[in-house]
Hints:
alpha/beta, Spore Coat Polysaccharide Biosynthesis Protein SpsA, Chain A, 2 domains
Amino acid sequence: MSKLSVVVSVYNEEDSLDAFYNAIKDIFKQIPFDSELIFVNDGSVDNSVSIIEKLAEFDDRVKAVIFSRNYGHDAAMIAGLDHATGDYIVCMDADLQHPVKSLCDICDAFKNGAEVVLMARQANKDAGLFKNITSSAFYKLFNMICKDKFVPGVSDFFGMSKRVADIFRQSFRERNRYLRGYLQTVGFKREVISYEAADRFAGESKYSIKSLFRVFFIAITGFSNNLLRIGYYMSAFSLIAALVLAIVSIVRYVNGGVISTILIICAVLCLLFGGLYGLVSLAGEYLYTVVAENRDRPIYIVDRTIGISGKE
């Protein structure tokens, strides 16, 4: 029988882990695969590790990878993929916003031959108006300027076959990564399943506005260099503005008016420097990405594992 590995990123989720385990334990009885549950503790400072240890004592399907410190959500998913032994792998969160009942739909997709399963969020009750608007704007902007097109609403809830997971184990090892985006570019037979995000069971979202903007820049600089071409448009706009200002000045001079030299110089300089600062900042994002990759630092460091053969 085929095996399903469920990878769960954990960061300070002590209030939801028991409820998540009880919910997914019941779902495991309904799916047509053997199963394992891999918790990746991403540097939690609460009692999450203790709870995971207790779950592993009573259920040998429960395994864990304990990071030495916090490395981020994507690093946790990569670590889960690295340690998963299933024929199919599903990544999800422990806060119950990713409905565990959707695992049945994902398994059906796998049985029908899908090797990549994307879960597209149709609603997010826990997110505020600002996050919902910015999320929608992100996908529209991304698909407008990038060659690769993303399915709107796709979250960090997805599944893949062992063959696809092996690709991520060997490649896509960037330190600044956008895993849900990479998954949409590898090809293979793909299925998109819609789901409605529930309220968080406990706690607050770990994604701040700052984190969301960081993800936005990683995604844009990782998939497109079209933003660098803004320089062409800024250059054309500057030349046109300079030409218009010159014509206006000449017309005013011919009609006996006074040319405001200082005003013209200030307007042109503001325009040029505004474009220059924007391009320098954008180039800095690209340069930082290149430098970070060349550092070749580890994506994550494992303190210890639980229930993983040969690595305890």
